[in-house]
Write a structure and sequence with these properties.
The complex is a heterodimer of chains A (about 200) and B (about 190). Chain A is an alpha/beta fold and about 200 residues long. Chain A has six helices and seven strands. Chain A has two domains: about 35 residues; about 160 residues, ABC-type transport auxiliary lipoprotein component (Rossmann fold). In chain A, about 40% of the residues lie in helices and about 25% in strands. In chain A, a hairpin with a 4-residue loop joins strand 5 and strand 6. In chain A, helix 2 packs across helix 6. The longest helix of chain A has 25 residues. Chain B has about 190 residues and is an alpha/beta fold. Chain B has a single domain, classed as Rossmann fold (3-Layer(aba) Sandwich). In chain B, strands 1, 2, 3, 4, 5, 6 and 7 form a seven-stranded mixed sheet that branches. The longest helix of chain B is centred in the first third of the chain and has 19 residues. The chains are: A alpha/beta (about 200), B alpha/beta (about 190). Chains A and B meet through helix 1, helix 4, strand 5, strand 6 and strand 7 of A and helix 1, helix 2, strand 4, helix 3 and helix 6 of B.
């Protein structure tokens, strides 16, 4: 037979534990929510952007193929959304003809010229900041961060821009060592999330 | 019974306080009180000085600053390539030591009201014994191109070995998340103003 005092005591412990876990979740979860902050030019009608030229991306990582991998994923994702993308080879030939030496020195004039010659409504540039499997104390997890900017080809105005990163190890990986996504899967998810903000 | 309650309550408050107080580094910043920031509609972000061992740190932070400025809706940002082109045309060799006349010349060439300059002072893992955690320190300044004066400046550090990392070996944020947070927080001080 359980007396009232013991019952009250156990209820108190349960309540205290619930409050404690709630507070812990609130505090530790602060860094988990990572909404994609982006810019879209006010008044932009995205339906007018049907054809895009994606320029080669800048690579700030130790993986020398990271920029090409991410660029390909961006092109594939755009195509899957029904956006016409200029053949990457065409873009490379044009950049060579225009004597664009480095991607960081592309000017408004260059963008407008690319738009006219390739007959696109927008030009996209980008960079890859991180593309690697990072190591935590006991777990490793894929980490990808990218920056994308879309310019209107007609006047070289920035119409959309974003910088986004995947988080580190998730709760299950961190605490239970569960296998998460691979680096490529993480990159695909990141690109899809980023392009969701515009298309 | 009452004593138990007190112990549990104290323990909960203590743990929560320790966890939430980890990132309590307040930024050091200055904003000219007599400047109307609504006047600044077009801004150019110049290449940041990279004072770290990571050779891409300056570029990564610069792109993030551009992205955050645009996303804040405060200002329009000049195409990075235009900035590089103007720097080269004006024959500016050293971005870290611009004088007033160079700032004015850049402003006129780029048709902007202000330029953002700065540096990445720390970008990498800090180590303490067997532990390491990413840490980022940035310095950003905004110069009015008309007067050449610095009207906003901030130095901010985030990351490093906090309580949880030090005592439990846990590091919750990646380098990318920390750099995103530090830039966002820096730009926020301008936005709040």
């Amino acid at each position: 037979m359980i007396d009232t005092n013991t019952k009250e005591k156990s209820f108190f412990y349960i309540r205290a534990l619930l409050v404690f876990f709630f507070l812990m979740t609130c505090v530790s979860g602060c860094t988990l929510s990572n909404g994609i902050k982006h810019y879209i030019r006010p008044g932009l009608d995205i339906n007018n952007i049907n054809k895009v030229a994606v320029l080669p991306f800048e690579n700030f990582t130790a993986d020398r193929f990271a920029a090409d991998k991410i660029k390909s994923l961006v092109v594939i994702d755009l195509l899957s959304r029904g956006i016409d993308v200029v053949e990457p080879g065409e873009v490379m030939v044009l950049l060579r003809e225009m004597k664009v030496r480095s991607l960081e020195s592309i000017t408004s004039e260059n963008i407008e010229q690319i738009g006219k010659i390739l007959k696109v409504q927008a030009v996209m540039t980008g960079s890859v900041g991180v593309f690697k499997v990072s190591r935590g104390v006991e777990v490793s997890y894929p980490e990808v961060s990218i920056s994308l900017i879309m310019y209107e080809a007609e006047n070289s105005d920035i119409i959309w821009s974003t910088w986004h990163t995947t988080g580190g190890a998730d709760f299950w990986t961190r605490h239970f060592g569960a296998e998460g996504n691979t680096l490529d899967e993480t990159a695909k998810i990141l690109i899809s999330d980023v392009l969701d903000t515009i298309y | 019974m009452k004593l138990y309650k007190k112990y549990i309550l104290t323990f909960m408050i203590l743990v929560t306080g320790m966890l939430s107080g980890c990132g309590g580094n307040s930024p050091i910043y200055h904003i000219s009180p007599d400047v109307d920031f609504s006047f600044f509609k077009n801004v150019a972000v110049l290449p940041l000085d990279n004072l770290t061992n990571d050779k891409a740190a300056g570029e990564i932070v610069k792109q993030l600053v551009i992205s955050e400025l645009l996303a804040s809706g405060l200002v329009d940002v000049v195409i990075p390539g235009e900035v590089m082109s103007s720097i080269s045309e004006l024959g500016i060799q050293n971005i870290s030591s611009l004088n007033k006349s160079q700032i004015k010349a850049l402003g006129n060439a780029l048709n902007v009201e202000a330029v953002i300059i700065g540096s990445v002072d720390q970008y990498g893992d800090v180590k303490l014994g067997n532990l390491s955690a990413p840490e980022v320190t940035i310095t950003l300044m905004m110069a009015d191109v008309e007067s050449g004066n610095i009207i906003w400046s901030i130095t901010l550090t985030r990351g490093g070995l906090d309580f949880m990392a030090r005592h439990f070996g846990a590091s919750s944020e990646t380098m990318s998340e920390i750099v995103q947070g530090v830039v966002r927080e820096a730009i926020q001080t301008l936005f709040e103003y």
